Amino acid sequence: MIAKRIVIFALALAVLPAAATAAEKAVIFPFDLIDQSQQFEIGLMPKGIDPEEKRRLQVITEELVRLMKESGRYEIVDTAPIAKDIDDKSPMYKCNGCEDDLANKVGADVAFIGTVRKASDVLFTVSIYVRDVKNQKVVHQGSSEIYGNTDAMWLRAVNYIVDRRLYADKGTAK
Fold first, then answer.
1. Which of 6-10, 90-94, 151-155, 167-171 has the highest mean pLDDT?
2. Contact, 125 vs 119, CB < 8 A?
């Protein structure tokens, strides 16, 4: 009888850590640029997104994916099955909840939405929002202002937000 209890206890201990550390599934949508730098310029035609800034949006999206994978907190799901939907619905910050529907399509529990708000050629605010897909609400968010338009500054902002803002109440993102 005691041997049977020991076996059951050992099996329970073997199963519990795996269940307790199972990572949530997360989808990370590409960062979007909100260009407010010309909003008060009368008579100027919008010049569109700068190719370097468009490239930086991709760079910081990849950085966020890397950071979340390394943290072990999330299992990052592939966005390839919803790539056309993402293109059609972008920018994500304006899609009025469609990010939850898209995240559901790929089986994600949480969705990351990122924005870079451009106030001028050198003043930006990088923001990351983490949505609970099932409950359709933001559960974590963080922002950082940067004064500079370089890869290093944009990457520093993403790292700072993840390390010091999104999960500050948990110690670190790891």
1. 151-155
2. yes
